[in-house]
């Protein structure tokens, strides 16, 4: 195999693909526009929407208010709550989002309070997963909690006791983790997922176009009749697919990090006020781990797409590979899942969890070495499969 011929193929594919607007949009325009819009635009819009929802008055219905005149009076005086007349169809109104919440007081509510009997139960009806309804329920619960605490203070004072007797021990939490590690841990849950997803999507279109696209255009036979060998041909195509995968991933991650600086409110929400800086060491380590993963995906995509007779058929084949990459990549989003020796041997999952550790500022060198070696093996396997496919006549000339 002559590397010079492989680089000739690489250069030819690069010239052809970079003349394609779809390739340029996928590699550069998409990550450079989408992430800033998501972070600076959508993040700010979501934040303002949540704040506006929390500030606006919510409609609440009181059921059995005659049993709790004092408590009902406190709810009427509270800011941000608009009371509506009681009705029997409160459940339907909540489900239709005409009413945000309803509070039901049992019979003899305040008589039981004055008598010091067992605590009467107040029911709060709301629509779970509906933001305005949940906000209304939270407001009601906060008001009732304050009212309950006020009653406790009054009872203790009437007996000459101090409220501090109810809290003989005070617990104060103190965070000992560095701010950089805490912020990295927050973003480290979502960044690995995006990195792996982009690693696949960056290689997807070029892999299909250089295989099934060549068949559909009828240019595959012309290339095979040239003086370039099969191995040199597949190596040149593979190197270009790998290049697009790495460029797309790198540009997207840098765009995402830069976008956080444009939206301070969104950044604070993502990191909960803690700082996050992508250090050169962390970026280099993640790149080394992603490299064999990109090799594996590039080789697998080339092999799958080569089996198809047309571009459309190749899209259906490679779609299954996308699913097998997305599901393991989500392990970084799962709380409590940490990298260990067993998970370090599972492809995609190992890189996802390792990137999460690196962004958090942790470098378990033993596990990092194991992840890198196993990823190299899987990458070599993906490349080997691609080489084998290009040497199979029934695959290259499938009709």
Notes on the structure:
The chain is mainly α and 399 residues long. It has 2 domains: 256 residues, no CATH class; 110 residues, abc type-2 transporter like domain (abc type-2 transporter like fold), CATH 3.40.1710.10. The chain is built from 17 helices and 4 strands. A 4-stranded mixed beta sheet has the order 2-1-3-4. Helix 2 runs parallel beside helix 11 and helix 13 runs antiparallel to helix 14. It is elongated, with a radius of gyration of 30 Å. 34% of the residues are buried.
Terminal Cα span: 29 Å
- Overall pLDDT, averaged? 82
Number of domains: 2
Overall 3D shape: elongated
Multimerization status: single chain
Number of helices: 17
Which structural class matches the secondary elements?
A: mainly alpha
Main sheet: strands, sense, barrel: 4 strands, mixed
Strand order of the largest sheet: 2-1-3-4
Number of strand elements: 4
Proportion of beta-strand residues: under 5%
Order of helices and strands: HHEHEHEHEHHHHHHHHHHHH
Short description:
This protein is mainly alpha-helical. It is built from 17 helices and 4 strands.
SSE blueprint:
Layout: H1 3-17, H2 21-55, E1 58-63, H3 69-77, E2 81-84, H4 90-95, E3 101-104, H5 109-115, E4 123-126, H6 131-158, H7 179-187, H8 191-209, H9 212-217, H10 220-224, H11 230-262, H12 264-271, H13 280-306, H14 311-329, H15 349-359, H16 365-390, H17 393-396
What descriptive keywords fit this protein?
mainly alpha; 2 domains; 17 helices; four-stranded mixed sheet; about 400 residues; elongated; about 65% helix; abc type-2 transporter like fold
